[in-house]
Design a protein that fits this description.
Helix content is about 10%, strand content about 0%. The radius of gyration is 26 Å and the shape is elongated.
């Protein structure tokens, strides 16, 4: 009987101690550091600070300094932040709709699952940035530098990326439907499984790019450099390649139904088992 009372008292004591520990530790924080929030609101400068979950919608901070800042799920919708410094910032799941980040520095920034619908990143530095699974619908990327950036599974329909740099960028399974990519430099980019339906790629550079199983139906690739690009099993139904450079390009197994191949330079191109524009099967070289 005495042992039973002791066990009961021990359990009660443990519960009380557990509750006291929870109160001492506190509940998980769902807001940024108050001091950091105040500093940013007053000056627009807050290097490596914690502003997670906060809302600054509609803010105006030209050349804001947020290098290395923790901005998880932070709301910057409709903000004017041209020239902002956001190198290595954590912007995962951030809300950045219609934000103006013209000439901003987001090199090595983490933007996975962020919403940048309608954002302006004109001439921005986005080298090594990670946009995986982000919403980039109708984003303005013209003349931006996305060299080696990661854009796996991004939603990027109707985006503007005229003369942008995508060298060695990872765009696997990206949705670039109706995107304007005229003059873009995508040399060595990985576009395997990407959707480029009706995309505009006139005068673009896709040398050595990988587009295996990509869908380029109705795409415009006139005068585009496709030298040594890999279109194995890609769909190019109704695409236009007028004047394109197809030197040693691999179209094996691709669907080229209705493709305009007028004036192309195709020395060494591989059409093995491809469905040719006239419906015939491409010949395989021994």
């Amino acid at each position: 009987m005495i042992h039973k009372h002791l066990r009961t008292a021990l359990r009660t004591t443990m519960r009380v101690l557990g509750m006291a520990l929870l109160l001492a530790i506190g509940q998980p924080s769902f807001a940024g550091d108050p001091a950091s929030v105040a500093a940013f609101k007053s000056s627009g400068h807050c290097v490596q600070c914690d502003l997670r979950y906060e809302s600054f919608a509609g803010c105006k901070f030209a050349r804001a300094e947020l290098t290395g800042a923790y901005l998880f799920d932070t709301n910057f919708n409709d903000c004017l932040m041209a020239g902002a410094a956001l190198e290595s910032a954590i912007l995962i799941s951030a809300r950045l709709e219609s934000i103006d980040l013209t000439r901003a520095n987001l090199a090595k920034a983490s933007l996975q699952d962020a919403n940048l619908r309608g954002a302006t990143l004109l001439r921005a530095n986005l080298t090594f940035a990670n946009f995986s699974n982000a919403n980039l619908e109708a984003v303005e990327f013209s003349e931006a530098n996305l060299t080696t950036a990661t854009l796996v599974n991004v939603k990027m329909p109707n985006a503007f990326a005229i003369n942008a740099l995508f060298r060695s960028a990872d765009l696997r399974r990206a949705d670039l439907t109706d995107a304007k990519l005229n003059g873009a430099d995508m040399e060595g980019a990985n576009l395997n499984g990407a959707q480029l339906i009706r995309a505009r790629l006139t005068n673009a550079n896709l040398r050595e790019a990988r587009l295996r199983a990509a869908d380029l139906s109705g795409a415009k690739l006139d005068f585009t450099n496709l030298r040594q690009a890999d279109f194995h099993n890609a769909v190019l139904v109704g695409a236009s390649l007028n004047g394109a450079n197809l030197l040693y390009t691999d179209f094996s197994g691709a669907d080229l139904t209705g493709v305009d191949l007028g004036g192309v330079y195709a020395e060494g191109a591989n059409f093995c088992n491809a469905k040719m524009p006239d419906g015939s099967k491409g010949r395989c070289k021994n």
